[in-house]
UniProtKB/TrEMBL annotation:
EC numbers on record: 3.5.1.28
Protein name from the UniProt record: 1,6-anhydro-N-acetylmuramyl-L-alanine amidase AmpD
Ranges where the N-acetylmuramoyl-L-alanine amidase domain occurs: 19-169
Family: Belongs to the N-acetylmuramoyl-L-alanine amidase 2 family.
SMART domains noted in UniProt: Ami_2
Annotated compartments: Cytoplasm
Domain of life: Bacteria
Organism (species): Zobellella denitrificans
InterPro entries linked to this entry: Amidase/PGRP_sf, Amidase_domain, NAMLAA_amidase_2
Cofactor (UniProt): Zn(2+)
Amino acid sequence: MPFQLTPAGWLTPARHCASPHWDERPRGEISLLVVHCISLPPGRFGGPYIDDLFMGRLDPAGDPYFAGIHQLRVSAHCLIRRDGELVQYVPFDKRAWHAGLSCFEGREQCNDFSVGIELEGTDTGTYTHAQYRVLAEVSRLLMATYPAITPGRITGHSDIAPGRKTDPGPGFDWARFRAML
C-alpha cells in the first residue's frame, strides 16, 4: 500500500510515535530533505532505544553509551528501520530537532526549512533494499507535496554539518537512491 499524507502531516501507513521534541517552523517553509542515520547503542539494530531517545525517555542505565545522550532533546520526522518499517515522530509541517548547527547553500538553521529522515544504520555500514525502497517512496511523496524539495535539495547530514557529522556515511548509495526517485 503506498504511503499517503494526512491533512495533519502524518504518513499512513506508518507507526506514529509523537515526539515532544518539535516546535513551529518560523516561516512554514519546507524546502530541504536531510538523510541521517542512527543506531542505539551504536552499531546495534532493533530495540526501543531510538523511539526512547526521540520521545525523551531514554534510560541512562540501559547502556553505558546512554549516560551521555539521555538528556538530549532531539527528534526526526521519520525513521526507516532495517526491515523497512516507517516510524513517524513529528508531522512534516512542524520543525523537528534533527539537524543541529547546520548550513545549506548559505542558509543556517536547516531545521527551520527541512524534513529529517533517519535510516537505522551506521555511518560506516550499508543500508538495506527495504530502506532504499521506503526512503524513495516517502521522498517522492514529499517532493509532490512540497515542490520546493527537488532532487538537488536532498542531502546528507554530513553535507549540512561538515566536520561535525558524518552520516549517512560512505555506505549510503546516493546514485542508487537518486535513480529510484
